[in-house]
Amino acid sequence: MITSGQQLKSVQETISRFAESIEEVKRQQAEGKIPANDAEISIGGFNYEIKKLKQQVDEYKSLISGSMDYIDARKLEDLPRTMIQLRLALGWSQKRLADELGVQQQQIARYEATDYEGISFQRMLVMLNAFDAHISIEKIRMTIDGKSQTKFLLPKGYKPEDIVRKKRMGLFNLSKAAS
């Protein structure tokens, strides 16, 4: 994931180098220096990497453009990536976030470089508060006695049978009701 303008520039340079490498492989293949199968494999590998990097560039540009209405994290494991996405979507630099939290910019850079590996849950809540971001948990999946179960956290005033009836009638969207 691209987390800064500097990384964006570096990724774009890498894409250019891969494109140049493709042209070089094609040239060498045309000159008979590389067998066609080897050239095809090399070009396929470069194209695959270019595609992945372009997806990262597109995501970064989408985030910093402010065109995203919401950021969707499906699992708790997605939260570190979501924290970076929130910062970018708000147009905040690592320095701005550091200033909001009263830490050095290098600390934010370390958090992001390690996907927030060493951060405490309390610090993460403070960061979410700084972003004015809110987390909504709609269901919890757990295993009890070897059986996987999903427990829905219902909006205030709803009973499980109301949800089932309204869902059957197409009148209930759990994600909207939880807001």
UniProtKB/TrEMBL annotation:
Chain ranges of the HTH cro/C1-type domain: 83-140
Entries under InterPro entries matching the protein: Cro/C1-type_HTH, Lambda_DNA-bd_dom_sf
Record Pfam families: HTH_3
Protein name as catalogued: HTH cro/C1-type domain-containing protein
Species annotation: Sphagnum jensenii
